[in-house]
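Hey everyone, long-time lurker, first post.

I ran two proteins through the pipeline my lab uses and got sequence/structure pairs for each. Pasting them in order. The first:
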Amino acid sequence: MLRRLRDTGPQTKAQLAAGFDVPRTTLAGTLRQLVADGLVDDGPVAPSSGGRRSVSVRIQPDLRFVAVSIGERRIRVAALGGHLAITSGHSIDLAEHGDDVDAVGSTVLDAVADVVDGARPLALAMAAPDLAAPFAEALRARLADHLPDIDHVALSAVRAMALGERHSGAATGLTDVVAVRLGHSVTSATIAGGRLARGAASAAGEIGHLRVEEFGPSCTCGRTGCLDAYASSAAVVARGRELAERGRSPRLTEILDAQGDLTLADVVAGAEGGDAAVVQLAREAGQRLGPVVAGLVAHANPSRVVLGGPVAALGMHLLGDVRAAAYRLAPPRAAEGVEIVLSERGERAVLVGAGIEAFEAWTRDLAT
């Protein structure tokens, strides 16, 4: 019942009974217990359908869950209510702390205290591009040590993105979805039949090191021609720097001369400004990503593919070529009807998805 109220918002008792296909008298005992436990209370009065207006039931508005998202350049900390709306948030610039886990951990703990504003969080979930990275592992341990009385869970950033987009983003309410996140690496997550796939070793979706060109650029994994060598954030910035140094993009050359280096935001601004060389860079990344998306479509037969992450900010210049390649190469039966779109919520989808994972951990404890 808590999951239903989380996902639908306030419901009348009649709506809840109909959703569970049980008599209202059967429902009443469960509702009484949830009210007594302080987990649900009366919501707004529902619109009249011609008779007496009914009071709805909602999750208690003071419940709080915490989501911590480690991004490529920032850590975002958010408090979410029981309906998974973000109630407050805080952003931490990693450049200010470098690799000092103690300093970052203290700042994150301060941010957690700030966003919950005196409330006791019920659970905390961390999302990160690579949960096995030493930085992420150390930060998880620090949070668990300082908040020992609540549930702690972790999931990859792309899986959190998939959950968040399905809950309230570009894939709201869909049961078969593929999310692709373009960040330090290119990763994917699949929701099939409403369930998130994780894989035998929780390694499903690590597509960044699929080889897309036999003799392509060198990749961080030591091989050549991997998807990451074309569509990861580092690869896009490196390609932008090359364009600037060769004078092919006057805009990026000017920025490089002034700053001494380029950021992904600089490359994205070049694409948004119509810089021909940068637009071509974005298209080439899309052309390499498209065949991989075609494979994901063939494998999962989703109704929607959502592209997100920092590199997705290249927008339609990237998306157009992803679509062209994916629709051309995917099996016609699987490709028919599938939509390939950009994320509507950006990194907020990751926070919402982490909030869902925190909520799930809390309800598992309730059930036991």
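...and the second, right after it:
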Amino acid sequence: MSDERLHAFLDGELAHEEAEAVARALAEDGALRARLAELRALDGSLRELYAAERGAAAPALARLGLPPAAGPRRRTLSWWLLPLAAAAGLAAGFLLAGRRAAPAVPPARPFVAVATLATGPFWVEDATGAAREARAGEFLPPGARVRAPEGVRLALVLEDGSELRLDRGSAVELVAARELVLETGRAWSRVEPGAPFRIRCGPTQVEVLGTELSVAREGERTEVQLFHGSARVEAGGAARALAAGQSARWDGAALSEPYRIQSEALATGWMLELYAYSGTHHKDLAEHLDRLLIEMGRRKLVSFEERVLESELAGVCRVPIARYLVSEGAQAEPEARRKAARVLETIADASVAVPLVKALTDPDPEVRRSAARVLQRLSGGTLRLDPERSAAGLEPAKVLECETWAAERAGVR
């Protein structure tokens, strides 16, 4: 029986039937009873040791979307690890290949990040230049230089809750809470809203606000790929504003105009090793699959005529096309969105009702008109949607009615 299950038994988190099953197992297994006693003693010691920190931990835990350490224990994060991280103003799951990492007691100094996952040992260099080998669970102070050796990828959570992941052979300096220097390699970041978040790469500076992006640097060459939100790239006296789905490159002499990311799924595929290694990032995997669907939808729209999509490929493209239609990156491609909406008028079924309702609020009246026609057809007229009135804009109450209907048809409720 796993320690995780025994911890849940100690904390009273198991359902009645599950708790009875554990109690029966304990009655029959002396070794299991001994392990439970060890865990109970450990729980008691840690609760006493870190009782003072729990109240102070609340703001930091809230920033990372975690419950207070004294509250219900998260399934992906044992309660006894929370105070350790909270003592540094941080909280994260120190999980390595599905096993608990040894809790590291933070020294008494400020921190800007904690390493939550690493596929192997990595290197940390402090402000004095002293380097040491580190593992998941490491607390990182301002000015620390983090290097992922070849063959190792790692994930960090910053003090404000922003995420940072480093590819193999990458190095980054943690200048401050919202300022990084990418020295070499590739880094992905999901930035929490707040003050400007800056990433410097030699002469290139990226400023982001609440967004998801990837930055790759090789020598003086830098490429920025923006997946969600907005960002501004500056280099060589020029500046470019990026929208979702766009990229820009500094080649050492000139900053390119924004161009479309050819494959968002391919661009983020290198992180699949981290998802699989942790075994807990279901949301990240779902987002990656969503990128694949959106990319499939866009490629079908670009590659095939409408009549082919409506006849020969209807059964395999309705979901990808619908997901593309309402994706953030599609907002910069009005003609492709209109084509998607027209195709869906013919091939849509209840499986894409939810994204079609979202399309009712699209900025393009042609897309709104097409979405209304499809929903009117799928509902058998019960939604009473007038395409022309929908093109002009629906009142919120009507959109809510459509959302409720679509959720029921999709089995959400």
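Reply from user beta_strand_b:
Welcome! Quick read of the second one: The radius of gyration is 25 Å. The chain has 15 helices and 17 strands.
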